[in-house]
Request: fold
Amino acid sequence: MRHLFLLFALLSTGSLQAQQGQLLQKYVIRQFEKESAPNTGPAPDYRDLRFWAASPHKTDPSDSVPAFLKKETPNLRADVFFIHPTSYLGDASEMDLLNGGNRREAFEALKTEPWNADLTDTAVNNRTDARAIRYQASVFNGSCRVFAPRYRQANLKAFFIRDSPASQRAFDLAYADIKAAFEHYLKNENQGRPILIASHSQGTLHAIRLLQEFFDDKPLQNQLVCAYLIGYQLPKNTFKRLPVGTSPTMTGCFVGWRTYQKDVMPPAVAREEGNSVCVNPLTWTTDTKWADKSQNRGSLIGFNTLIPQAIGAGIEPASRILWVTLPEKAGARLQNLKNLHTFDYNLFWMNIRENVRARVEAFGAAERK
Reply:
């Protein structure tokens, strides 16, 4: 097993030649398939509110409003269908893995886990609610009713061998749940209301597929306010007719970014050779000009603490990832992180909230003409 850990580490860092890497990947796939426990747990029935992490028909963490916005008057003229990121991590730490953590320990923690989450797993559900639903989905609650399905998300290990048959089966099962939840929403909840699609990380992988199947060059695109596709690569040819958003009030479009500290260039991103779309959440354009920290309306550090005008951002021209500069007061732990994936929403929380309102208002104004 020690040899497997070494091979896996080499595979993860991309330090072997392509042919050797392919052989190692096949070996890792066999080990995962051999060790993984069978999937358990129920298929979701989206008529049952237990299978929704967020719904306007129950009280949940997406209803949370930070103390500094208690006097805000919500205007829920649209709906957001939010697809949460991976919270099925076993004992592994996503933040550690993204920033050079102990991959050997992560592999050990994940190798026997089933490929997909059990929707009755309280620990996974609590992690989803406390992080993604409270800190991410809540950004939309000033302008939207929030719908966020629980789904049999793929385990974090599926991303280690992203293109393997076993991983693809795990992602397909997760997407099947999301599709069922969205169809339930369309049939029972939408009633012609404007729609936002929002997501992060694994959620964005599935959101892309959902948009391709239901919106891109299809009648439902006419109801789309915007898709916030955050924390995952967006190749330039992802959609046929769905355009990237290039202004703060553009509608019927998509936006997205991946956040790193300035001057960081991960090898995996470099291998994309610039095949990615990025929108700067401080300007809501694809312009690569640096946006000063004065344009940052507020980063959410702790749910009730907003730090305004502290973080600037710019699109790195070659790779199309988002670079940011962090203030010293951000703290040593955050300063030491190179990959800020976990904070893709938090760092621009108030800009996102205000932009959602602006786009919903622009969509409504266009409808009234």
